[in-house]
Automatic annotation (TrEMBL):
Residues 12-305 form the UvrD-like helicase ATP-binding domain. GO terms for cellular component: cytosol; DNA helicase complex. GO terms for biological process: DNA integration; recombinational repair. The lineage of its organism: Bacteria, Bacillati, Bacillota, Clostridia, Christensenellales. It comes from Candidatus Borkfalkia ceftriaxoniphila. It holds the Pfam family Phage_integrase. This is Uncharacterized protein.
Length: 779
């Protein structure tokens, strides 16, 4: 590590108040950080200050954030700052993450001291509700349950109970506490909660809310573990403190109880999560709970223009003028703008008032837009953005339709779509590309390489398709940025950078022995869902998304055919989406073996019975494969099913796509025309099949060559074999050998271009005739 005494700490662009907050490391501290005031910057600098200036080891620091995204951003910025300063420490030893993830880490490291056993199950929100639903009859036996869940279906009742249980857990209320209450409904709730806790123990499960309670009890009840954690974690920093709840506060206080070096950061004006049990009283009362608490006010806004900041201050003040007194509900603060307005003389914040009549409101907005354009305040309509709490609001949708009706096109941006040039680095995050390509791109954009990319040498190179996909994403980002005049050109286009050529395609398919073993194993498998899915993959060669997208209307039981007309994929932030199949040729109808049709019938009957058992919990639809609640099954679930079956069958690992490759390879080996194989596979062109499965075609080529050789070397014209009598066996040699020979002949026939066996026989007769004439001439 660099000699800390010989270097002066780099505070960067920190203002005076930020510097004070960064340097205050001993004792409790409260940082009130208004919107856009550099809260994350201050936290990052504070961590680096502890490590660089004070020699604190990363394992002695705990940083809790409210979201995984915020935790990742902190890790990235801390890492980059340490790299810039040439400080070599193991950043992975930091306790950093959401409060839940830190609690999980504590539980995992000390699980033997909790009620949990190894291999415990962590339930998400749905799992929790479903567990209650599965046991709803047990809850129904509780006397007077209708006092807390009256006239509700089993599923709605499960949702209501889960809500109660989470609230109880987050406030650290025990069954005993509830039983002390004289209210009859609370008494019933106590019994229900007692049943729920017993079920958690029986199923070795933990819900999202109880994670924190288990971690807290672990530290509270076990002196050795508590002392170890308190001794190790010397500095505690909590982000978004205004969004913490009671159990989180108690846990944080317990961890920081020994050293008292606790720093909480937040803004009482931005409390968002009351519906999750969060309370701003935690941040408002923090100074009263810690003696000699230092307080820092970050009030200089670096994010927004002057008018936006002034609007914020005026609005907060207007509530007092209207009669409401903030008093103890918030800290007094006035945010100061650091930026000027982008266009002086033009208001940044405008309210287009309205009559509630949508048409008048729309006319006012259009009139305002036209005035902006006529006055040259804007040069393009894409310089205007409408911000709403939700774009799903009926009034918002109506406005969008009204604008479009009057010739004003718009782009609806959802989630975190951001096309500013300064966010290119975020758009590139996690995308693996070659160093030469990325260096060239950074140079052309005019941005330092290390601001856009992190250099990482991997032992296992990424697949060509993965890298190519990432390059397409980057190219699309820059294309959109260019369209919106944020960059001058798309420097990731082929005009500037050449993409490498595609390497030879490598495929993996099952060996003949594994394919036969797995097929037999599938037929005997007890779970009809697994059996049906794997038979579909192996006997049709369908892609994963195609199987996930199948509906019962796509199955023609009479004709033994299946039609592919949609595909399902999973997109981050959006979840499952239904889309068109991969190519136009992927929309296809396949004849399938009878064994698959019979299995589908059996599975259909099972699904009908299962739906009857679950009642209104399982929604009605036509999906072939569903979750327990009736929603479409995630495509990735099939991968888990395959892995489980391969392990049980003691067969080496294969991917789902390997089953597709196996299916197509077996078709080619059986001498099925390449045109037919390609059509069944859903390839856009026959050449695609030929390119990918060239190895299989080469093997049939050798068979054809050997067969042709034997034909030309034969000295006698083959005589027609006598037809077998009823007593004679059809095959006087090994049946499998004869079938193999027949397949080789079919393969040879197709390679030579003959459509029918009759044409092929005529060709053979012609060869024999030529041989006979040649022999007569020589004599």
């Amino acid at each position: 590590m660099t000699d800390k005494n010989s270097m002066r700490f780099d505070f960067g662009q920190a203002n005076d108040e930020q510097k004070k907050a960064i340097q205050h490391i001993d004792g409790p501290a409260l940082i009130i950080a208004g919107p856009g005031t550099g809260k994350t910057f201050t936290l990052v600098k504070r961590v680096v200050y502890l490590i660089v200036e004070k020699g604190v080891k990363p394992e002695n620091i705990l940083i809790a954030t409210f979201t995984e995204k915020a935790a990742k951003e902190l890790i990235t910025r801390i890492t980059n700052e340490l790299i810039r300063l040439n400080i070599n420490v193991n950043i992975n030893e930091l306790y950093i993450g959401t409060i839940h993830s830190i609690c999980l880490r504590l539980i995992k490291e000390n699980v033997e001291f909790t009620r949990l056993k190894k291999n415990y199950r962590l339930m998400d929100e749905f799992d929790q509700k479903y567990m209650i639903y599965r046991n709803h009859k047990i809850f129904d036996e509780i006397p007077n349950l209708e006092l807390i869940a009256d006239r509700l279906s089993p599923w709605e009742k499960s949702k209501q109970l889960a809500y109660y249980f989470n609230a109880i857990s987050e406030e650290m209320i025990t069954v005993e506490d509830l039983l002390k209450d004289n209210d009859a409904a609370v008494q019933v709730l106590a019994r229900a909660y007692e049943v729920y806790l017993k079920l958690l123990d029986e199923e070795n499960a933990m819900d999202f809310s109880s994670i924190q309670v288990i971690a807290y009890n672990l530290l509270k009840d076990h002196d050795l573990i508590r002392n170890k954690i308190q001794e190790q974690i010397q500095y505690v920093m909590i982000d978004e403190y205004q969004d913490t709840n009671y159990v989180q506060e108690q846990l944080i206080f317990l961890i920081a109880a020994k050293h008292h070096n606790i720093c909480v950061v937040g803004d009482d004006d931005q409390g968002l999560y009351r519906f999750r049990g969060a309370t701003i009283r935690n941040i408002l009362e923090f100074p009263n709970k810690w003696k000699d608490c230092a307080k820092f006010n970050l009030i200089e806004n670096y994010r927004s223009e002057r008018d936006i900041v002034n609007f914020y201050n005026d609005w907060m003040q207007s509530t007092e003028l209207s009669g409401f007194k903030w008093q103890n509900f918030r800290y007094e603060k006035a945010i100061k703008p650091s930026k000027k307005n982008l266009i002086e003389g033009v208001p940044t914040v405008v309210k287009v008032s309205g009559q509630r009549n949508l048409e008048n409101w729309g006319d006012n907005i259009i009139d305002f837009i036209n005035k902006l354009k006529a006055s040259h305040t804007i040069t393009d309509y894409n310089q205007i953005a409408f911000l709403f709490r939700s774009v799903r609001n009926d009034r918002v949708k109506a406005l969008a339709d009204y604008l479009e009706k009057h010739g004003y096109n718009y782009m609806k941006l959802r989630y975190e779509v951001n096309i500013q040039a300064c966010t290119l680095a975020n758009a590139f995050a996690g995308k693996a590309v070659s160093k030469n390509w990325s260096s060239d791109l950074a140079e052309r954009i005019g941005v330092p390489f290390d601001e856009l990319f992190n250099e990482k040498i991997t032992e296992e190179p990424y697949a060509y398709e993965t890298i190519h996909k990432f390059k397409r994403i980057i190219r699309a980002v820059l294309s959109l940025a260019k369209k919106n005049r944020l960059v001058t050109d798309n420097y990731a286009s082929a005009d500037y950078i050449n993409f490498p050529k595609r390497p030879p395609h490598k495929i993996e398919c099952m060996t003949d022995e594994d394919a036969k073993r797995f097929y037999k194993f599938i037929l005997d498998y007890p779970d009809i869902r697994y059996k049906t899915a794997m038979l579909l993959f192996l006997l049709t060669g369908f892609r994963r998304g195609e199987v996930a997208g199948l509906e019962w209307k796509d199955i023609d039981f009479e004709k033994s055919e299946i039609t592919v007309c949609r595909s399902v994929t999973t997109v981050k932030e959006f979840g499952m989406i239904e889309k068109e199949p991969k190519t136009d040729m992927s929309k296809r109808t396949l004849a399938v073996p009878e064994v698959l049709i019979e299995t589908l019938k059996e599975y259909h009957e099972w699904q009908i019975n299962r739906r009857a058992e679950l009642g209104d919990y399982m929604q009605e639809n036509d999906y072939l494969f569903t979750q327990e609640n009736g929603k479409r099954l995630y495509p990735s679930t099939f991968t888990g099913w395959l892995n489980k079956m391969l392990r049980e069958a003691n067969i080496d690992h294969y991917s789902l796509h390997s089953l597709r490759h196996t299916n197509i390879t077996l078709q080619i080996a059986a001498g099925i025309p390449i045109v037919t194989v390609s059509a069944r596979a859903g390839h856009a062109r026959t050449s695609t099949t030929s390119d990918i499965y060239a190895y299989a075609l080469r093997s049939t080529d050798r068979i054809a060559a050997d067969k042709l050789g034997s034909i030309f070397s034969d000295e006698q014209k083959p005589t027609e074999s006598p037809k077998p009598t009823e007593e004679e066996p059809l095959f006087d040699v090994d049946e499998q050998a004869v079938m193999a020979e027949f397949k080789r002949m079919k393969s040879e026939m197709k390679r030579l271009g003959f459509e029918t066996m009759e044409e092929y026989k005529e060709y053979l007769e012609f060869l024999e005739m030529k041989k006979a004439k040649k022999k007569d001439f020589q004599m």
